[in-house]
Specification:
The relative contact order is 0.17. This protein is mainly beta and 428 residues long. It is elongated, with a radius of gyration of 24 Å. It has a single domain, classed as Beta Barrel (Porin). The strands form two sheets. It has a 14-stranded antiparallel β-barrel with strand order 2-3-4-5-6-7-8-11-12-14-15-18-19-20.
């Protein structure tokens, strides 16, 4: 029976690896840098608390944001955590508004003990996503000329597969490392055409970039007892800069048609660059956090994370990005943690807030994001398996200087399967 369960978990994991990141987002801000970034603090339980992750741990929680947290995985347990993600976004300018939505597999994690002092975890999740389709109309009437339309679009992104290890050093200290394999492809194109003139040909430029390489993240956590059933956990994470190996190809050509979804009729090739090798520099990142908890009843915490995106370069070229930082605060409470309590008392309730100063600055405006979060865990009867739900309501961007403000509602739903696999039988 255990072997059947093992095969089920393995098949589910690798199916998740193929599905994560395939859905296309829709945000013009993903045009820049590596697109819309997804941090490692995407565990549904953590999302419900505003994203506090650096000081978080739990015997049934898989938290890739700080690999040191793996050291607290239950010594007799196998944990599988899988989540779906959805969002509803209203894109608004001073002149118009439109909506978009998305649902996709969010992540698949699993973890288990190796020795009394060593725990390990594997998982797959998105690193960044690209998805936009924007048409810019240039009014040329003052020059007695037809309007010009610049259509830009992009898709793709980077996924990450990690193997993490957490080590218990004594009773209070834990150290961890994530070896992460990044892989993905991005396609970006720009087309200029003249819809009011059949005698002027259009021009299209297309860039395709693929990348794959290993990067490493490090983490530590230290527990400080503060009284009876009270504990303060301090956490820190660090990732040094890496040059991600990548390949790029480009082509530019003239064409007829191709606009508004029409068929393209290529004419002449203007520029062709076959696939060539380069690197994408991922900058240094560090963060620290703290969580104060009382037994299994409640906890509160806060995170700060910073990344040096001004150093970002792709194939030797920078992208005028700003340094980014994230601040998160949140907590959870379980009214009465006993097996005979009512469901409402055994449920865990969460809330939090986060502020993300992104790496984008357009027309002098930082494209920042802030949101409030809520979450709940439904414990399964006679089991430590849980159903987890998190919801975030927030805003990104501004409508000033013809920019776009995005008001969103995101949700994450997860099943965290907690199985006792490593206990020896006392009787046969």
């Amino acid at each position: 029976m255990k072997a059947i369960k093992a095969w089920f978990f393995i098949v589910m994991f690798f199916q998740g690896a193929m599905v994560v990141g395939q859905a296309t987002i829709n945000t013009p801000y993903s045009r820049y840098g590596l697109g819309e970034l997804h941090g490692k603090n995407i565990n549904t339980k953590i999302e419900g608390m505003g994203g506090i992750a650096i000081g978080m741990w739990g015997p049934g929680m898989l938290n890739p944001a700080n690999p040191a947290s793996y050291g607290t995985i239950d010594s007799a347990a196998f944990v599988l955590d899988a989540s779906i993600f959805g969002n509803y976004v209203n894109h608004r300018t001073t002149l118009q508004s439109e909506n978009s939505n998305l649902m996709t597999l969010n992540y698949v994690f699993f973890g288990f003990p190796v020795t009394q002092w060593w725990r390990t975890s594997l998982g797959v999740m998105p690193f960044s996503k690209i998805g936009y389709d924007v048409k810019i109309v240039v009014d040329m009437s003052q020059y007695n000329f037809t309007n010009v339309i610049n259509s830009i679009d992009g898709s793709g992104g980077i996924n990450q597969f990690y193997w993490g290890n957490g080590f218990k050093i004594g009773k209070r200290l834990r150290l961890g490392i994530d070896a992460t394999f990044l892989f993905g492809q991005a396609r970006r194109s720009s087309m200029i055409y003249f819809p009011d003139s059949a005698n002027i040909v259009g021009t299209k430029t297309q860039h395709n970039t693929t990348g794959s390489d290993f990067v490493f993240d490090y983490g530590a956590q230290y527990d400080i007892p503060l009284g009876k059933d009270q504990l303060l956990t301090l956490g820190v994470i660090y990732a040094n800069s890496f040059n991600l190996n990548a390949k790029r190809s480009s082509i530019a050509y003239t064409l007829n048609g191709g606009f508004n979804g029409g068929v393209e009729f290529p004419l002449d090739t203007l520029v062709y660059e076959p696939e060539y090798k380069g690197t994408i520099l991922l900058p240094t990142k560090f963060g620290f956090g703290a969580v104060f908890r009382k037994n299994n009843n409640w906890l509160v915490g806060a995170d700060f994370e910073w990344q040096n995106w001004k150093k970002f370069k792709s194939f030797g070229q920078s992208d005028s990005l700003d340094n980014a930082y994230r601040i998160s605060v949140g907590g959870q409470i379980t009214p009465k943690h006993t097996s005979i309590s009512s469901l409402l008392k055994r449920m865990t309730y969460r809330a939090g807030f986060n502020y993300n100063n992104s790496y984008l600055n357009l027309f002098g405006h930082s494209i920042n994001e802030y949101g409030i979060t809520f979450g709940v865990t439904f414990p399964m009867k006679r089991s430590r398996t849980t159903l987890d739900l998190a919801v975030e309501v927030g805003t990104r961007g501004t409508t000033q200087d013809h920019l776009i403000q995005e008001n969103y509602v995101r949700f994450s739903f997860a099943v965290a399967i907690f199985e006792n696999w490593f206990q020896k039988r006392k009787y046969r």
